Amino acid sequence: MLVKTYCAAVNGLEVTTVTVEVHITRGILYHLTGLGDTAVRESKDRIVAAMQNSGFKFPTADITINLAPADIKKEGSSYDLPVAVGILASSEEMQADQLSHYMLVGELGLDGHLQPIRGALPIAIRARAEKFKGLIVPRQNVHEAAVVNNLEVYGMDTLLDVVQFLNGAKQFEPTIIDTRREFYEQQTKFDLDYADVRGQENVKRALEIAAAGGHNLIMIGPPGSGKSMMAKRLPGILPPLSLAESLETTQIHSIAGKLARDTGLISQRPFRSPHHTISQVALVGGGSTPQPGEISLAHNGVLFLDELPEFNKQTLEVLRQPLEDRKITISRAKYTLEYPCSFMFVASMNPCPCGYYGDPTHHCVCTPGQIQRYMNKISGPLLDRIDIHCEIQAVPFAQLSQMRPGEPSAAIRERVIKARQIQTERFSTLPKDSGSRGHRIHCNAQMTERMLHKFAEPDAASIDMLRMAMERLKLSARAYSRILKVARTIADLAGSEKVESMHIAEAIGYRNLDRGDWAERGI
Fold first, then answer.
1. Is the bond preceding 69 in cis, omega lying within 30 degrees of 0?
2. How far from 324 is each of 249, 420, 474, CA to CA, in Å?
3. Within 10 A of 49 (CB to CB), how many other CB atoms are there?
4. Is the pTM value of this prediction over 0.85?
5. Are 237 and 416 in contact (CB under 8 A)?
6. Where are the strands (E) in 350-492, listed by range?
7. Whole-Å CA distances, 86 to 21, 22, 357
8. Which of 305, 384, 481, 522 is the most exposed place for a label (fewest CB within 10 A)?
9. Residue 496 and residue 462 in contact, taking contact as beta carbons nearer than 8 Å
10. Distance in angstroms between the alpha carbons of the first and the last residue of the chain
């Protein structure tokens, strides 16, 4: 008897409906076709044990299973449940009437319990697009899958529960989640606040500009000056995620298996801070079983690299293309995948190996050669892609003990949101073919050269100022564009329609770590 069940294959962010065809005839062999990986091929042993421990009999017959379309690679253990149900229906141990109405995914434990899988959210989106009545998932995945409306999502505990439900012998209620209520309730709950940061007003100003325009930023200063402390509070001043951004971000985390149980939509912008020993694959994604990397997990949020020169130089260089294109294409012999990675890049570093070069209260013990080698770990092309360079000094104890709490994150966030609204209105007037991805521009950092000429054209006085800065700091053409983008954001924060010379002057002040300036400092 031929029976069909339905599940899905996740490759990158693309989800393909997979038809599990089960055919049983006389014999004793077990055939599984359809380009399954090792986890799929090993499913027979799990299925046999799960069926027997659930009170079913594994048929002694010739079983042929095909995962169609057969030319798409199937990876992971989520095919266990649809294959097991197909075998039971084909051997007439359960009814097959309802199988065409539901998509099934889940890994089987040897005792018949369902184990969580990756990618439940994008699979649910695909099930709705394919007009399935419902989706059956392990109970641990039901919360993330149920955020998809117009689809009945059932969280099951065991294989026996699934069979009884499909036979109509036991009733289960679909999980219903008030997505919008959960989403908006969590958007303003932050554990860290800039009110805890004493002093460092110039650094907080730089972080506010970076948040308002989506700019990349690097902080350089001695140990204990608060670089990491301030970076970790950055999500609290970023504008809230939209539902569309949240859905896209949640899908990436779902595919990577990073969502906690009972988590629906991610409501706050992600903040990823990998250790400096991270490999290239872990950073950008890929691997033998392709997974999103840290840059994709930081999509619509912040990627923070603390102690930037301690990272492997080759690992840092792979960031150059994603920082420009805001997507990463991973090409291997057996697959090609594309993940989005539109993130704010924030980094911190010491000015020298000992950390105290230029510090007025500590003596630097590093030689010029050591400082040069330390700084050269950050390549010029990578530094060019960082819009704002901010130097930071430690706050003296006498001032630290007397200062009042700083401005709260909520107040800064209000100004950031207002500036972002100005940018949204500005870019919403652009036609879809206006420059590269004109309809997808959300902040000043994403502007193209054509948009810079339209929205950030400097006046005569500003051009003279820029010319002097270009010559003195030996800036590249890319750095010139970065200055204009930052100046446009400063003007937006000030409520100015035009970019004026004072905005340009402040933006130039955030390029003081360029190679030319290092040379002037004698490094």
1. yes
2. 19, 20, 21
3. 16
4. yes
5. yes
6. 388-391
7. 7, 6, 68
8. 522
9. no
10. 78
